[in-house]
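Teaching note: in complex prediction, the entire set of molecules is handled at once rather than each chain in isolation. The prompt given to students was simply: 'Predict the structure of this complex.' The entities are:
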Amino acid sequence: MKPEDIMNSVNDIEDDMLNDVQKIRTKKKNSKPWIKFVAVAACLCIVVGAVLGHFHFNPIEPVNPSALPSTHLHSNAPVMNPFSVSNAVYPAMLKYPSEDAFRSDNGEVDWVAYTNAVTKWHEDFKTRNKNVASSGDYSSFVNSTTKVFLSDTKGENIVYSPVNVYMAMSMLAESTGGKTRHQILALLGADSIEDLRVKANRLWLSNYSDDGVKTNILANSVWMNDNLSYNKDTLDILAEKYYASSFSGTMGSSEYNSALHNWLNEQTGGLLKKQAEGLEFTSDMVLSLASTVYFKGGWESEFPEHLTKPDIFNSVNGKTSIDFMYQMLNGTPLYSDDDYSATTLSFKNGGKMWFILPDEGTSPEALIQSGSINPILNGSTPKNTHNGHLIHFYMPKFDIVSSSELSDYTRQLGVTDVFDENKADFSPILADNMSAYVSSINHSARVTVDEKGCTAAAFTVITAEGTMMPDGKEIEFRLNRPFIFVITSDDSTPLFVGVVNNVQPTS
Amino acid sequence: MEDSKIVEMYWDRNEEAISETKLKYENYLSKIAYNILADIEDSRESVNDTYLRAWYSMPPHKPDSLSAFLGKITRRISIDIYRKKNSKKRAGSEYAISLDELYDCASAEGEPEKEIDSKILSDALNRWLNSVSEDTRNIFICRYFYCDSIRDIADYTGSSRSKIKSSLHRARLSLKDYLIKEELL
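The expected output is the structure of the full assembly:
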């Protein structure tokens, strides 16, 4: 090893240590240790199954799915299986150039060529960012569904992904007609199906990233029964506007079931394997719509592992000893409202996670019902913002998973006809006057949090000279009792909302 | 202006992000560059390159600590320039001197050198820094990251120069022991 090797590795010194030293160098003495942060991987999926109402399928059908032209077949299609009819074509996206690709044999980087490539990426990035969803598109749906879906946790942990259910329900709206569709549009906050297409497409695009820096795809798919026939126009719209892949196979066969499981696992990074395996097509199913969201973000700066220590989490079922990660936040505002306080952690490359701690005596469920966290869900900030505090942030490591049947909740929200054998109208997608109704809406989600972030260079939260120094007030923010979290994308779209009521020690 | 605001301006592709960065960080970055290069012109070049690199790397990066983010860029660019244009005038640069000091914890001459993955070495260094006292850590980082002179470090910490020198010496030996223990040396 040469001295140069050590000098090189010195460049990777954790930001928090550098910032500590920088404080000394600028003679603003502050003996507080500065700390790194966590990583989060989250994910989820939903399946909507429609069951034949009156079973009268016609074996001689005008359009057989397998006979559909494979115009959507594409090389960047993520999953191909024997049941594929058409695969989603995702918009092309430039990959962020890596320095290494421009490094010559002597180790030097060709900066001119590299910066040219980066400039191109930025132009592409700029164009992409025009697709930002406006929060108004989606806020009424988020507010109403969060309230209902998270109303009764029964002391369990629960995770809900509004963006995921929104996508699945949008596809359901496309597949239905008449009053059935009308009820779904009302829930989605859309005036018409055309309005929904614009909004859903915008939401999809604003959450789509496949540039090598961040991979985030809201994957959609349609699963058809190979005994039946479907309307091509609607399938085309699902492919074009919702980037849905479609499959056709024998409902109830183990091969078709495992094709569904594989697709779900592939789209969700295997995080929901158990939940996916619990989903099975039955032979009377005519259609299934599946949507997934997968999110993985490293903390802007990681929690140092050596500061993780066991502490007590006061769950609804009693006390649990669990590993708490620790870090100090400087420059991150503390937010509050009448009945909670909240703060955020940022992810590398955008997006953040909100941690909402209800005041003692208030349950997370009651807080959600009160609507006072709606500003967070709608991309804004809570009533009060306190700057200049030094926050001692303690968070339990958690890995929570939940699986819910949303049919009853959806009925409560005014979407009723689609579940009714006699009223459900699936004419836009089902040919031959077939009738069907929704038998289940399954929503599974999982969020795991720990101190390990992406292994790439970690950049840290620290104040430097010139930034506001803490006003001396130190605040402890300890998530040691049931709390709420919200993961938002770069444009503040809520991707996941969850309630952590209890924690399990992870090995 | 707050760091988060400046970073936001980079993300909005607002060119004023660079002037705000200059306003806030020019001195800080120039000092890092000068400590390494011992030449005003070269330092200026390094700092200007830093702005350019910052412009091209945000997005995708969204650093919470803009100062550490920028400081690392300047340090890397300056060391690159140092290696490329190693002229006589640099012999006295603090980087040259501190680099020389690190022979204390490198492989001795004639010894077979181990091929070490840079990531593994960086991790070990961070672990070692986390294990030593705060004073040792601070002095080490002043000297080998910021390439500050012994005099500057003595000023910052309110200690005597001889005390800084001996602390640094002990730190290097401790690092060497650590690297041997981790089988990196």
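Point out the following to students. Chain B has two domains: 3-85, 94-181. The two ends of chain B are 45 Å apart (CA to CA).
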